[in-house]
Design goal:
GO terms for molecular function: G protein-coupled receptor activity. By secondary structure, the protein is mainly α. The chain is built from 14 helices and two strands; from the N terminus they run H-H-H-H-H-H-H-E-E-H-H-H-H-H-H-H.
Length: 363
């Protein structure tokens, strides 16, 4: 095993370890908190993390052995089963990400009607469609004997058939990546743009409220005023940063592998083994990045992890200090709005408060 294979094997081991640990933490959080798993978004997150965990436990180790040994598993039929699992889980992961982005758009765009628009049962039906589409492509590839060991990617997945079957295989590969990559990417971009539009208008409204609160509180300490302005500046870029990370991670992880798969269909293209393995590692890295992008970095999951850690260490949470609570921007703005008259009606203010609470829960 040369230097290139050693580096690629080390990268794959790191991706494997992070994917196992992070997805296991997401599943533990959902199992520990009934509030997380009873939501529609919780059902989608459990499906995504479970698929990533199966991919890391049942597929990545055999690719690692292929990188180190340069040959497929010796057990008869094992490579076909692994290839079936690889095709199914990769397509299901991309469709699950699209479903999560649609769920986020519904939660942010229609906060007052979100609970009635997408219930856990509806999320289950949506996942059933994703599973059905992934299963159709996997069964078709298995029935046509297109699953096996690909030396260019050192993995058990789709492999090039003999010349007479190349046109059918090319049509199948193009359809698979159109439905499993292009369609989820289009849904992700469309819903993310709509979420960004709603978040930008929400930030503009919050900026107006913050500036009014700062003008009314004339005796406010300068350090608190400075902190309010810093939070206002961070809030403007928070939604853009999160949306950019989700789209960039999807493209960086899946695009090199999809482009390489489509390029190898050309008769004059020979895929370099190092590049093929690297593109496969990037596709695997989506299983390690998604738990942080959609779950573990959110406030609700951080709170559940903190409760689990305190319970494990048998510690009680310390009460928040008066100084920190007095510096809380949200509570300060709410107190100002309660004490000062506002030209808007009570009905509109209640809708705005419920909208803001729903936006905070989604982020």
């Amino acid at each position: 095993m040369g230097l290139g294979e050693t580096l690629l094997a080390g990268l794959l081991v790191m991706v494997l370890a992070v994917a196992l640990l992070s997805n296991a933490l997401v599943l533990l959080c959902c199992a520990y908190s009934s509030k997380l798993r009873t939501r529609a978004s919780g059902v989608l997150l459990v499906n995504l993390s479970l698929g990533h965990l199966l991919l890391a436990a049942l597929d990545m180790p055999f690719t690692l052995l292929g990188v180190m040994r340069g040959r497929p598993p010796s057990a008869p039929g094992a490579c076909q089963a692994i290839g079936f699992l690889d095709t199914f889980l990769a397509s299901n992961a991309a469709l699950s990400v699209a479903a999560l982005s649609a769920d986020q758009w519904l939660a942010v765009g229609f906060p007052l009607r979100y609970a009635g628009r997408l219930r856990p049962r509806d999320a289950g039906l949506l996942l059933g469609c994703a599973w059905g589409q992934s299963l159709v492509f996997s069964v078709a590839a298995l029935g046509c004997s297109w699953l096996g060991y690909s030396s260019a990617f050192a993995s058990c997945s789709l492999r090039l058939p003999p010349e007479p079957e190349r046109p059918r295989f090319a049509a199948f590969t193009a359809t698979l990546h159109a439905m499993g990559f292009a369609l989820p990417l289009a849904v992700l971009c469309l819903t993310s743009l709509r979420v960004h539009r709603v978040a930008r208008s929400h930030c503009q409204r919050m900026d107006i409220v913050t500036m009014k609160a700062l003008m009314l509180l004339a005796d406010l300490h300068p350090s608190v005023r400075q902190r309010c302005l810093i939070q206002q500046k961070r809030r403007r870029h928070r939604a853009t940063r999160k949306i950019g990370i989700s789209i960039a991670s999807f493209l960086i992880c899946f695009a090199p592998y999809v482009v390489t798969r489509l390029a190898e269909l050309a008769p004059f293209v020979t895929v370099n083994a190092h590049w093929g393995i690297l593109s496969k590692c990037l596709a695997y890295s989506k299983a390690a990045a998604d738990p942080f992008t959609y779950s573990l970095l959110r406030r609700s999951f951080r709170q559940v992890l903190a409760r689990m850690a305190r319970r494990l260490l048998k510690r009680t949470p310390r009460p928040a200090s008066t100084h920190n609570s007095s510096l809380d921007l949200a509570s300060m703005v709410q107190q100002v709005l309660k004490r000062t008259p506002h030209p808007a009606s009570t009905h509109n203010s209640s809708l705005d408060a419920e909208n803001d609470s729903c936006l905070q829960q989604t982020h």
